[in-house]
Design brief:
The complex is a heterodimer of chains A (about 110) and B (about 110).
Chain A: E1 4-7, E2 10-13, E3 19-25, E4 31-38, E5 42-51, E6 54-57, E7 65-66, E8 76-78, E9 87-94, E10 102-103, E11 107-111
Parallel strand pairs in A: 2-11
Antiparallel strand pairs in A: 1-3, 3-8, 4-5, 4-9, 5-6, 7-8, 9-10, 9-11
Chain B: E1 10-14, E2 19-24, E3 32-38, E4 45-51, E5 56-58, E6 62-67, E7 72-77, E8 86-94, E9 101-104, E10 108-113
Parallel strand pairs in B: 1-10
Antiparallel strand pairs in B: 2-7, 3-4, 3-8, 5-6, 6-7, 8-9, 8-10
The chains are: A mainly beta (about 110), B mainly beta (about 110).
Chain lengths: ~110, ~110
């Protein structure tokens, strides 16, 4: 089954404790991206990647890092999480040149 | 008081009526415009897209209209059903040069009353 898998689905952590949210897709898509969703603000892009070893900042990259060492995986790293990073995070993938993005189920992160 | 920015635009319709959800976009250079549906507790799901050189596209019970003159996109849902209740996002893709960017609007909450 074609899918984007994020882990964990829920996470509560403390300020400053490094964490990684994993994202994996099995559709051989070139394009992967991370979004955060906050009430009334829609989906805002954090980082995106157009292929292996190619990553770029989205609209709200501060406080986040990503890597793309393999085509299928695109982890989101918070080196020192802060409470303003409490949000619902989505990973998405799509073929380059295509219009349909496939989303993961989301990761609800709470930073206390 | 609450910030206006925390409130999603909402649309409430009766089951069986037609729904029209609107979206204004800003980037004239976008190649594709897309509608996504997000049900509670799930990730967004693709509904329909339209290329920038078209003005109308129809799917099953849905029609997307693109008016490039006023930078306006709309989604029409025919015979709306309770299962259509969700947040609907418009999105645009800009693939100019070596870049490829998918940007979302803020969303509209559609509630279908039985």
């Amino acid at each position: 089954e074609a899918q984007v898998t994020q882990n964990p689905r829920y996470l509560i952590t403390v300020t400053g404790k490094k964490l990684t949210v994993t994202c994996s897709q099995n559709m051989n898509h070139e394009y992967m991206s991370w979004y955060r969703q906050d009430p009334g603000l829609g989906l805002r892009q954090i980082y995106y990647s157009m292929n292996v070893e190619v990553t770029d900042k989205g609209d709200v990259p501060e406080g986040y890092k990503v890597s793309r060492k393999e085509k299928r995986n695109f982890p989101l790293i918070l080196e020192s999480p802060s409470p303003n990073q409490t949000s619902l995070y989505f990973c998405a993938s799509s073929p380059l040149g295509g219009s349909e993005a496939f989303f993961g189920q989301g990761t609800r992160l709470t930073v206390v | 008081g609450e910030s206006v920015g925390l409130h999603l635009p909402t649309l409430s319709v009766q089951e069986g009526d037609n729904s029209i959800i609107n979206c204004a976009y800003s980037n004239s250079a976008s190649d594709y415009f897309i509608w996504y549906k997000q049900e509670s507790g799930k990730g967004p799901q693709f509904i329909i897209d339209i290329r920038s050189n078209m003005d109308k596209r129809q799917g099953q019970r849905v029609t997307v209209l693109l008016n490039k003159t006023v930078k306006h996109l709309s989604l029409q849902i025919a015979a709306t059903q309770p299962g259509d209740s969700a947040v609907y996002f418009c999105a645009e893709i800009n693939s100019g040069g070596s870049n490829y960017k998918l940007t979302f609007g803020k969303g509209t909450l559609l509630t279908v009353n039985p």
